[in-house]
Amino acid sequence: MNFYTAGIDAGNSSVKVALLEFSGDVSKPRLVDTELSKLRKRDPKAVIEGAWERVLARNKLAPDQIAYVATTGDGELVEFRRGHFYSMTSHARGALFIDPGARAVVDVGALHAKALIMDERSKVLGYRMTSQCASGSGQFIENISRYLGITIEDVGKLSLEADEPTAVSGICAVLAETDVINMVSRGIATRNILKGIHVSMAKRLVNLLRLVKAQGRILVTGGLGLDVGLVAAIKENMTGGNVEVVNHELSPMAGAIGCGIWGGYRHVRLARN
Amino acid sequence: MLLQKKMIAGHFDRLANTAKTGEKAVYTFVPGNLNELIWAFDLLPVHPEINALQSAMRKQSGDYVLEAEKAGHSEDVCTYVKSDIGMMRKGNIGPTGQRLPEPSLLLLSYTGCFTFMKWFELLKQEYNCPVVMLHVPYQADGRITPEMRKYVVKQLKEVVIPKLEEISGKKYDEDKLRAMLASSARSEDDLVAVWDAAKQKPSPIDAYFGGVYYIGPIFTAFRGTKECESYYRTLRAEVEQRAKQGLGPVTPDGKVHQEKYRLVVEGPPNWTSFREFWEMFYAEGAVCVSSTYTRVGGLYEQGFRHDPEHPLESLADYCMGCYTNRNLPSRVDLIAKQIEDFQADGFVVNSIKSCNSFSAGQLLMMKEIEKRTGRAGGFIESDLVDPRYFSAANIKNRLESYFQMLEARS
Amino acid sequence: MDAYVGIDLGSTTTKAVFLDEHEKLLGFGITNSRSDYDIACQIAREEAEINSRFAILRRELRSQVAGDGHEQLIAWLFQKYRLAQHSRQLEALAQACRKAVDLLPNAAHRPPTHAVLDQILTEMEREAVGLFTPGAVARSDFFRDVAASSFLHLAEKKAGDDAKLLDRLIGTYDKSILQVEAKSYTNAFADYIRFAADAVRRMPEFEAHGEAITRAVANTIAIEFRVLNTIGTGYGRQRLPFPKEQIRSEILCHGLGAHFMFPKTRTVLDIGGQDTKAIQVDENGIVTNFQMNDRCAAGCGRYLGYIADEMNVGLHELGPLAMKSRKQVKINSTCTVFAGAELRERLALGERREDMLAGLHRAIILRAMSLLARSGGVVSEFTFTGGVAKNQAATDALRKLIAENYGEMTINISPDSIFTGAIGAALFAKRDRKGDLIGVDLKALQKPVKPTAQEQR
Amino acid sequence: MTDPTTEIVEQCRVLYEDLSFTAVKQWKERTGGRAVGFMPVYAPRELIHAAGMLPVGIMGGGENLEIIKGDAYFQSYICHIPRSTIELGVTGRLDCLDGMLFPAICDVIRNLSGMWQMLFKDKLVRYLDFPQEFTAGIGGAFYRHELEGLLQQLSALSKVTVTPERLRQSIALYNENRRVIAKLYDTRAKTPEKVPTYELYLVMRASNVLPVEEHTALVERYLAAAAKRDRKPLDNARVVVTGAFCEQPPIALIRALEASGCYVVDDDWVLGARYLLGDVKLGDDPLTELANAYLGDTVETASRYEPRRKKGAFLIDSVKKYGAEGVVFCAPSFCDPALLERPMLVEALNKAGVPHTSFNYAENTSQYHVFKEQTGTFADSIKLWGAA
Ligand SMILES: Nc1ncnc2c1ncn2[C@@H]1O[C@H](COP(=O)(O)OP(=O)(O)O)[C@@H](O)[C@H]1O
Ligand SMILES: Nc1ncnc2c1ncn2[C@@H]1O[C@H](COP(=O)(O)OP(=O)(O)O)[C@@H](O)[C@H]1O
Ligand code: SF4
Ligand code: SF4
Ligand code: SF4
């Protein structure tokens, strides 16, 4: 039995689509293609559709050839979905696919951060989420990088070069911009400002990870999984015990991959009944 | 001050040596405590609140609170509890660096605060030791009824004392208790004289920041002891001497500042930045002439004294009489009276995030007091032992505006 | 001429006010707050001085030009003056941009970027002339915003589909504007006004007034302002280089300023960029009670600013858009950032932008209502100050909620309400002056321009 | 076919959303009687009823009340229910109440009683201190005395002399009400697809404003209607919800909980109507019987000291009784009793191997995203991995 599924992660700053192919063992799909499309203040529905069509076209597939379209994130925006999986369920599965050794995940996206621990089958054993305040989120980094005149891709690299990180005092993601402006004025180098931000974010994330009692290998997923500066800051702060913090180029796709895989399981189950 | 330090050190030494001496510790709360009764059984009282505040003064409470939060405690709840739990999880090292003994009994005198109950339930789970609950009814109508007193005395007789006998292996000795209560009453007389001294201008004491040092011995483990009596005798003499010389209060700077504003303060202080907080007052010439926090252990100026003639009844009245066990209208009356008695220019409410018992309703109290006394209230927010909630800039801003407002109005 | 100066160093804008011996207002100055607080103060103060001089210039012209002719004349002089100042800043911006492009890490990118940049800058210069005419609607009062909107608009047009080029141009602008902002371009009144006078004299309709202009301008330039005392207030006041006696809490200043403008005021609400304050004052303008919000953007001006950015509209347009709402939609998120995301999501699900904006404005006012209640309610008369008082959707929501909860009463909103704090400070400066204490003069504070973070990197 | 419960649920929804308490005003007009409010739990409604008055449960303002003045009375770190209750009070919406009872459940409600004394000087305001000592001779005697005092105040207010017989009649009516409520809960646990939780919740909320006889009839009608439903159970996770004995969650949150894949099989909402677990005996001295019922057969909440059983035993009983697969703690933010209780319950659940999750809310939160993600993940993990 051969079939395709797709996972769509409708996020707050970008839409991620993963296309998977299953043959034989459902737990071992093949990742065929991925697509990440930034919203950039555009209509999310249109962006989702655009990304979806590009993936289908690239792989010369028609919509009815996809056995199961699974969503995570803001699934309501995807009218052609078959089923929805919650983001931590999805990220856990995606993380396991990306790195079979991962036993904990910290998903850092545009607005939220979530930490979870799981077993070797990606069963979520415990989790925590930040709540209604966006202090220290990806969105904040994006705003700041704009003010500092650097691209989001460069943020991580620059932060790694810091020699004298300067703490950001403000807590509010919006008002902290004023603090950053203030720092610029005091002649503090961008790399040190960025590192300061990364450190304060990392502390919050480490706190989340500690609260779920993360052990072993921790995979940083979500868009900020690409931010090497943040990953390094988490590593520095997540000391003690047998922990290992890693990231992966597929980190932003973890949610999409994970829900796509769950879609595969459900498809097999539904086909059987 | 030195005397007090010595007393505390001695007590903690004794606590640290219980393994050798075989003495037993009873944990209990500060407001309305049954200190004399515990001593009467030769048991050692331990007050977790005091440990928490000491941890804060030594800048350790932040870590403790985090430790407790890691163990599943919510960010939203009283940080005294979390600091205590965190401290326990990190080895139960007390303020003097010595290990505290585990409780042989948790004497839950549920006075003025519901959190106390949760606190000891939590400790019970940790230590798996006996708990005895003394339910102290609230002065909902601003008075103590005979039934309330009867209820507490009955609990003392039928529940608390038998438990203390069981734990200590000693019989209840009422004469011993009476002697201690008589001693307590003498210290209480002296403390009232100290508070009264602040009626003078300039006030020789700061009855809030300085006041917390003055209440240390009598509110905690020492009331009823000889050392305590002599401490208050000395303190009273010192204060009366300063008053005679027309000196102002002693501050951590040692300097006597000009008394520019006389204030009454409602609410507990912040312990994590105690000095910095105090400085915001004395640097501006603000002297606290009275406060409610220093009355959480008893409103002696209203006439209450421990009474050797009616030992259990007076213990019951002491429990029920503490500040936070009084309803809001009585608290308003009390502050308004302090403002008049001590000729204060205004009053400041330090609203504590942790403490619903103190804080819920303070805003209405403030309005009411302003209306009644015509004196302006200042409002600041902080926390007892969680350093995350002490925003120096914010508090300073508010205080500064408040003082400038007082100045402009005078 | 003797003057007292009040400075309100706000989180988003810095305001200054000149006051004379008789507590009469001479002039206002405003600029956007920026990383260098001293520069912001200096510019605001200089703007206030310029504004005071223009008041004098108007008086001079009125006495020399018959009829209403002087109004037109002064309007033109003012616009040309602005143009001169703007051009000087544009020049600086151009220079900084060119330098930034020279520093692009990939040398191959430099020539094509230069080419487009040149086109943009030339275009901006041309546009500027049109921007500064009487009756032209200003997009913003600040160079930063005016330049940004032209630059970005042009950059998008020129870059076309080349997203990388666009990113580079935007990056260049972001870096360069910081440098322009680190310097004052306001301290050359004589130069600019002479330029303006020349330009206006050459206009056919004013030919007849050539001599009057020359005389009036010369008289105005000749006036010296002697600043007797300066008082600072506002969010950044602790960082002002003033002695403690010359700093006042913003609460007191707002109270006194509001009392000065509207003597019957008893309650004042100030919604600024970073905080919201509810203040009660007595019949002398002395504060009797106040409340301030916590440090969270939800509930103050930055909230609206952030939303405007998210929605891709100008701050000035936000209120008018919200006014077009047919029904209010409640926004669930409290947090500014989440509200932005929610807005986008709901837009996608078919809600109307206007309705959501109306909900947002109501939300911010509701939060202020809480503070007001805490400070002691609303007592007649009520005055609304701060930048958000310029937003009509916000003022409408406020009027409605006040009427519903406290009954009908007089609500004062002055077009100058953003200066309330600075006015209060100036009044304190006047009333505080003891003996012949000469206050700190900000001219002494001019500092060399610091290198920006990018240059240090 | 229209849903048989629609009309009943709609009636309850109208009562729930009516922040002006029209039903109470109408009752007063109709009967000429008086009404006395009480805060969420442990109020002896039987006494109010026996004094010929209508007991009215006040559970804050919920998600629909805009707080304008209430915030002036409470700092941001105090839970929401007291501020919305004050808002209701100072905006005149509670003018229809002739008195208010404040049961001793926490410091906030306790202090609220003092605030009420200051704000509403002409009304009956009474703080009810419950014994935390549970022997008949000590705590029981104290509580009986409290009840007696309360009864005197109530009958002075209504000018109705309360004979023991009259009080027994009231107790009997409430006993009956408690029995139908118990049936309602059992039915939901057995067939959650027929009794959606948000409906059950609305039906329960109606008990706050309806006379007890009417409410009993309403529950019976609802049960009959729900039984007619023909629905298949969904593949949902069965959970017990706990932590909200005082400030109530918004309805939308209850719906979100169900929508994210959970069947609620037991909860601690609207406890005021069901804090006594069995019948109150109809003995010679009804006050003593009420006191005894309180000492003995009463739900465990964070506000009640429990000297006898291990922490969490009550919750684990409920999990077992209703066949739940997990526990969702959902407590109001800043609720000290509930939040301090939580770690102890967690420990008990861990020992018993019951999965759990937790989060906080406020009665007027309207942000369900985070909440849905969490309960959804919880339901997912029970469903995907529960049996394995
Ligand atoms: N290449 C990148 N390098 C570093 N950070 C990035 C990169 N791309 C995106 N990000 C960060 O990741 C965030 C988006 O994360 P994502 O998980 O996609 O969020 P969401 O799922 O909420 O849309 C952005 O706000 C940005 O801060
Ligand atoms: N012309 C305007 N139209 C609408 N809103 C404005 C306008 N000018 C300023 N604002 C609002 O006012 C806020 C700044 O207010 P201001 O009182 O200057 O604050 P601060 O003193 O903190 O700098 C901005 O964030 C913005 O929301
Ligand atoms: S502090 Fe800032 S980030 Fe946090 S909720 Fe407020 S606006 Fe949002
Ligand atoms: S709530 Fe207040 S009185 Fe109670 S334990 Fe905490 S600090 Fe003490
Ligand atoms: S929600 Fe909790 S803290 Fe608040 S009033 Fe109710 S029991 Fe007390």
What keywords describe this structure?
heterotetramer; B: 410 residues; alpha/beta; Rossmann fold; 4-stranded parallel β-sheet; 17 helices; 8 strands; 52% helix; globular; C: 457 residues; Nucleotidyltransferase, domain 5; 3 domains; 5-stranded mixed β-sheet; 4-stranded mixed β-sheet; 54% helix; disordered C terminus; binds adenosine-5'-diphosphate; binds iron/sulfur cluster
Describe the structure.
- The complex is a heterotetramer of chains A (273), B (410), C (457) and D (388).
- Chain A has eight helices and ten strands.
- With 273 residues, chain A is an alpha/beta fold.
- Chain A has two domains: 3-87 and 253-272, Nucleotidyltransferase, domain 5 (2-Layer Sandwich), CATH 3.30.420.40; 100-247, Nucleotidyltransferase, domain 5 (2-Layer Sandwich).
- In chain A, a hairpin with a 4-residue loop joins strand 6 and strand 7.
- In chain A, helix 2 (87-98) packs across helix 8 (254-272), helix 3 (138-148) runs parallel beside helix 5 (176-185) and helix 4 (152-160) packs across helix 7.
- Chain A is globular, with a radius of gyration of 19 Å.
- In chain A, 58% of the residues are buried.
- The model of chain A has no long low-confidence stretch (mean pLDDT 89).
- In chain B, strand 1 (25-28), helix 3 (35-40) and strand 2 form a beta-alpha-beta unit.
- Chain B is 52% helix and 11% strand.
- Chain B starts with a helix and ends with a helix.
- Chain B has helices at 2-16, 18-21, 35-40, 48-57, 61-70, 79-89, 115-127, 146-168, 174-197, 211-219, 226-245, 274-282, 311-321, 328-341, 356-359, 362-373, 392-409, and strands spanning 25-28, 44-46, 103-110, 131-135, 261-266, 286-291, 346-352, 376-382.
- In chain B, the strands form two sheets. In chain B, strands 2-1-3-4 form a four-stranded parallel sheet, with helices on both faces.
- Chain B folds into two domains: 2-170, Rossmann fold; 176-409, Rossmann fold (3-Layer(aba) Sandwich).
- Chain C has 457 residues and is of the alpha/beta class.
- Chain C has three domains: 1-63 and 225-256 and 438-449, Nucleotidyltransferase, domain 5 (2-Layer Sandwich); 65-217, no CATH class; 263-413, 2-Layer Sandwich (Nucleotidyltransferase, domain 5), CATH 3.30.420.
- Chain C has helices at 37-64, 69-102, 110-131, 143-159, 163-181, 189-201, 210-222, 250-261, 301-311, 315-323, 336-348, 353-375, 392-406, 420-432, 453-456, and strands at residues 2-9, 13-19, 25-32, 226-233, 267-271, 276-281, 287-292, 382-385, 411-412.
- Chain C has a five-stranded mixed sheet. Chain C has a four-stranded mixed sheet with strand order 3-2-1-4.
- The longest helix of chain C has 34 residues, at 69-102.
- The model of chain C is unreliable at 435-457 (pLDDT under 50).
- By secondary structure, chain D is α/β, with parallel strands linked by helices.
- Chain D has a domain at 32-164: Rossmann fold.
- Chain D contains 14 helices and eight strands.
- Chain D has helices spanning 6-17, 22-31, 45-50, 81-90, 107-119, 136-158, 164-190, 197-205, 212-227, 251-259, 286-295, 313-321, 336-352, 369-385; strands at residues 35-38, 54-57, 99-103, 124-128, 237-242, 262-266, 326-332, 356-361.
- Chain D is globular and about 60 Å long.
- Classes of the chains: A alpha/beta (273), B alpha/beta (410), C alpha/beta (457), D alpha/beta (388).
- At the B-D interface, helix 7, strand 4, helix 8, helix 14 and helix 15 of B face helix 5, helix 6 and helix 13 of D.
- Bound molecules: adenosine-5'-diphosphate (2 copies) and iron/sulfur cluster (3 copies).
- Residues 11-14, 109-111, 138-139, 141-142, 152-153, 155-156, 222-224, 226-227, 252 of chain A line the site of one adenosine-5'-diphosphate.
